[in-house]
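Supplementary Note 3. Input sequence used for the single-chain structure prediction.
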Amino acid sequence: MQRHGRFGSRRLAVGACAAIALVGAVVGVAAARVIPVGHGAGTRTSRAAASRHGAAARTARIAGAGAQSGVTNPHGLAVAGRAAGPRAGLGAPRTSCQSVAHVGDSTSVDLISPAFVPNPAERIAARYAQVGVKHLSIDASGGRSIVEELPGQRNGYQVASAWRARGYQGCWVFALGTNDAANVAAGSTVGMMARIEQMMAVAHGEPVMWVNTRTLLSSGPYASANERAWDKTLVRALAKYPNMRIFDWSGVARPAWFEPDGIHYNSLGCVIRAKAIADALAMTFPLHGPSAAQIVR
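The predicted structure, written as discrete structure tokens, is reproduced below.
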């Protein structure tokens, strides 16, 4: 199927059970390679060039070393609150997670992209290092969901399972769900809770922080209502997994940080999101042990 928007044609790939996975609004292809933490994700084309050359999946992998007051949310769970966005390094939170495995979609690819975050110190690898992460692996791919796969792509479950099979032990960050919510809305027979359960099974009781989702769209598979349904399912899953925490990105993300497609983030949004995710990890799993609050923002 084809959709057309500001950035040219947006390819939607039909997966199992007529599910839809997003590929569009992309910035060329970042090399799917292992690179040192903090050194970017390889060459990326501009958005204008990408629209001329058609839609291509964002893909990037990183592996290496170095990388307040309580409120109540609508679900009645304790939430640790803080201001979103960049903050001074003095007094920055620190995490007990020295090893982190981050599995994400295109919104994670952009966080290590020089095209979106030109300053290496503001990319997510550096932000993780600033809160105490010493060993970081990131695997992010455009259109990625937990279940469905695009050609030549591994889904989120497969990536995490492969790391686990190789003996990975440490904390997990799952920045997935945007495409899963759309796939379920498009007719997938694999429900939202089943998807979350798959990822939590791979973590095998180790610390997990989920980054929840948000879009600005009012209709279609990626409508904000579908993303809110995903976020609510994450909250319900907290009762099953004491090792699970949620970073409520949806609660702090601002419309001005989005690109015109209403799904991806502009450069300012990427800079803020990278730091916010790392700071959230330090709040959910601080030096003294897991946060009592199951949701942080």
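The longest helix spans residues 267-284. The chain has nine helices and twelve strands.
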